[in-house]
Amino acid sequence: MADSNKPNGNNGENDPFEELFKKLSENGFTSGNAAGGFGPQAMGIDPEDLRRMGLNIDPNMISGIFASVSSMMNAQNSDEPVNWNLARQHARQALAAGGSDPSVTQNQKSAVADATQLADLWLDPVTSFERPGYQTEAWSKAEFIENSFAVFQEIAGPIAVSMSEAMNNSMEAQMPEEIKSMLGGGGNILSGIGGMMFGMMAGQAVAQLANEAVSSTDIGLPLAEGRSALLPAGVAAFGEGLEIPTQEVMLYLAVREAALVRLYKSTPWLRDDIIDLIKRYARGIHIDIERMQSAAEGLDPMNPEAMQEAFAADIFTPQNTEDQQLALQRLETLLALVEGWVTVVAEQATKNLPASAQLAETMNRRHASGGPAEHVFASLVGLELHPKLNREAAAFWRSYGEEHGTDARDELWKAPETLPTAEELTNLDSYAQRVEIFDASDDEFDAALEKLLSGGYDEPASDDSGDSEDSSEDDTKDDDR
User: Fold this and answer.
1) What are the CA-CA distances from residue 209 to residues 270, 315, 334 (Å)?
2) Is residue 251 within 8 Å of 356, Cβ to Cβ?
3) By the 8 A CB rule, do 358 and 420 touch?
4) Most confident of the following: 121-125, 322-326, 423-427, 455-459
5) For residue 468, what pLDDT is reported?
6) Chain CA centroid to CA 392, Å
7) Cβ atoms 180, 172 nearer than 8 A
8) Coil, helix or strand for 138?
9) What gap in Å lies between CA 109 and CA 419, rounded to an integer?
10) What span, in angstroms and rounded, lies between the C-alpha atoms of 9 and 242?
11) How wide is the angle at C-alpha 91 spanned by C-alphas 88 and 92, nearest 5°?
């Protein structure tokens, strides 16, 4: 039987962490003075006290912990749920650690300008969407971070707010009262922890995106509102091993960039719809704190590698609700429709480019193996983008354009309702029946609505019930086969 007078006794009277918190509280540690920045010595905590309590911790580590607490508290002086300055700083640091990022040369700027000019000439006959009215720039990776960060913040912001609130509420609900008292209720410091965590995650995601991106629209969404850009370093990396002249690679990617910019410029609702779907997903975020605790059992907080592995695992991933799943499905379909349209338009615009087919296949493989779009949406909302859906969307746009023409194809982007669903991508007849009503006259609309409400669409096509029954039997036999 354990001795209750020992530091690790079962009755908890001399529990080392309880003694530590008691010592902190007695010496005036609160969330308020944490923001001022101080170490254990200033708090009256002697390293010998720590060792006596069974905590063989380097005093410098404790100082580091207090410094982190102070940083988190200071970061929450604003209403922002995420320390975006930290995120930007971490993105630049992660980028610098990943290798060199030379400044864009004048020759590279000229090459981008020439490629964009030719891309626009090739696009004019194959799409009804007009040029955006601004030039495509040439960016380094660092410039990509700086120029795209505001839009990335807008995309990630709804997720950050919901994640931070869910984590704070869950953790605060299970925090002992004595610790809450010491931390001034716990809310501020938990908000600081959540904001710092998401800021680090966001910074890492932006840095990875900058390392992989070839253009400002590489995730299927313009990341610099009112601007367009190619990244010469990304273009060069895309063409590695292809044995295709760099000018051709840049021209192909310039066509894709210009096409996507035209699409978003001509359909203002599209960007808003994507952001709204992300917000809809964010509203349902909740954190299963018990699942986190169960998965984190046995972790040594003094083992940085183990802690890093825990944060990299899915123990902090929220469990999706039914409405969130619907939002993700709609988001994936919309992104696939964008990618499919760009694929088809680029295919038509670059028909005279010798390596067009090879470059298109390289882009497809990039999506399949996990490109920038796949990484960003996986890290933000856990969305897995399926290459099959991209191919189905491209097949839809190709088929529709061949049958109805370029103008009619592009006209489908006029509203969300005129776009096909994921199921309709492989069932053009079903799509055609649904959108017929958009082109109907008022009388035709009223007649179709009356027929629908009266159940007319469910009635047999023939008045001969016998023929209908025979037909049904034949259909059943066909289904069985």
Assistant:
1) 22, 24, 21
2) no
3) no
4) 121-125
5) 45
6) 22
7) yes
8) strand
9) 37
10) 67
11) 90
- Give me the pLDDT at residue 175, please: 63
Which helix (H) or strand (E) is 107 found in, with range? helix 106-123
Identify the band that residue 192 occupies on the pLDDT scale cut at 50, 70 and 90: low
**Per-residue pLDDT at 462:** 45
What is residue 370's three-state secondary structure? coil
Task: Determine the Cα–Cα distance for residues 216 and 147; give it in Å rounded to an integer.
Answer: 9
Q: What Rg do the C-alpha atoms of the chain give, in angstroms?
A: 29
Integer Cα distance of 88 and 175 in angstroms: 31
> 166 near 53, Cβ under 8 Å?
no
Is the model more confident about 23 or about 144? 144
If one counts every other C-beta atom within 10 angstroms of the C-beta of residue 134, the result is 11
Tens digits of per-residue pLDDT, 449-473? 676 567 654 554 444 444 444 444 4
Whole-number Å distance between alpha carbons of 348 and 218: 20
**Shortest CA distance to 12 belongs to which of 178, 169, 124?**
178
**How far is it, in rounded angstroms, from Cα 72 to Cα 66?**
10
User: What's the half-sphere exposure (Cβ side, CA atoms, 13 Å) at 468?
Assistant: 8
Residue with tokens 């990776």: 141
Kind plus residue range of the DSSP H or E element containing 137: strand 136-138
Strand partners, 137: 229
Give the number of other CB atoms < 10 A from CB of residue 468: 14
Structure tokens, 349:
């615009």
Tokens read off for 447: 């007649």
> What is the mean pLDDT of the segment spanning 400-410?
96
Helix (H, G, I), strand (E, B) or coil at 15: coil
Q: Answer yes or no: pTM beyond 0.90.
A: no
Structure tokens at 402: 């061949």
Question: Are the beta carbons of 412 and 400 closer than 8 angstroms?
Answer: yes
Which tops the pLDDT comparison, 145 or 33?
A: 145
Distance in angstroms between the alpha carbons of the first and the last residue of the chain: 73
3-state secondary structure 203-243: HHHHHHHHHHCCECCCCCCCCCCCCEEECHHHHHHHCCCCC
Sign for the pseudo-dihedral over CA of 110, 111, 114, 116: negative
Sequence letter at residue 340: G
